[in-house]
């Protein structure tokens, strides 16, 4: 019985040391800032250009892996280096793009087919439209669960969980 008790005490001691060390590290990870812009990392932006080269590294000398070809597509910035931003799309594909190809205008990607867009942040309200999966919509206000979006001349509210390009805890006014 004393061997089990001493093992439990060692596990508890390890857990306390682990939490004491990892607590500040976790807080630093949540408060990560870009070394160039001092803006939060990761953060969402959109493609300003109709085409943008995605490179393996942050310079024109690095190889182009592919080309983003969708103006307004939401992207997530995960790192910064000079005039370059490391981005990824909803599938995790990405690389380095020049900051001039990006915009702070927020867009989202619809992830559910025939997603209802309501007149208000209430599923009992009138359905203004239904958006197909893959539609890029402009992002407006967001509560904890709902976001206002617009695309194709239609505007309304939908559940945040059906969108890529907005953080789950993000609130926008």
Descriptive report:
It is a single chain. With 173 residues, the chain is of the alpha+beta class. It has three domains: 1-31; 43-105, SH3 type barrels; 108-164, SH3 Domains (SH3 type barrels), CATH 2.30.30. Helices cover 17% and strands 39% of the residues. It contains one helix and 14 strands; from the N terminus they run H-E-E-E-E-E-E-E-E-E-E-E-E-E-E. The strands form four sheets. A five-stranded antiparallel β-sheet has the order 6-5-4-1-7, with no helix packed on it. A hairpin with an 8-residue loop joins strand 2 and strand 3. The longest helix is centred in the first third of the chain and has 29 residues, at 2-30. The chain is elongated, with a radius of gyration of 21 Å. The chain starts with a helix and ends in a 9-residue tail after the last strand.
Query: In terms of structural class, how would the helical and strand content be classed?
Result: alpha+beta
- Reading the helices and strands in chain order gives HEEEEEEEEEEEEEE
| CA radius of gyration | 21 Å
Query: Would you identify the regions where 5 or more consecutive residues have pLDDT less than 50?
Result: 1-7, 11-29
Number of helices: 1
- Quaternary state of this entry equals single chain
CATH homologous superfamily caption of the largest domain: SH3 Domains
């Amino acid at each position: 019985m004393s061997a089990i008790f001493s093992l439990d005490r060692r596990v508890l001691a390890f857990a306390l040391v682990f939490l004491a060390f990892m607590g500040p590290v976790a807080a630093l990870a949540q408060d990560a800032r870009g070394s160039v812009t001092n803006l939060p990392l990761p953060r969402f932006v959109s493609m300003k250009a109709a085409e943008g080269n995605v490179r393996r590294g942050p310079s024109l000398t690095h190889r182009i892996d592919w080309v983003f070809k969708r103006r307004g597509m939401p992207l997530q910035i995960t790192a910064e280096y000079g005039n370059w931003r490391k981005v990824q799309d909803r599938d995790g594909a990405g690389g380095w793009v020049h900051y001039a190809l990006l915009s702070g205008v927020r867009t989202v990607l619809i992830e559910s087919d025939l997603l209802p867009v309501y007149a208000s942040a209430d599923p009992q309200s009138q359905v203004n439209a239904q958006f197909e999966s893959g539609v890029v919509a402009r992002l407006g206000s967001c509560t904890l669960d709902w976001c206002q979006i617009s695309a194709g001349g239609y505007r309304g509210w939908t559940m945040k969980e059906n969108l890529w390009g907005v953080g789950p805890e993000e609130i926008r006014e």
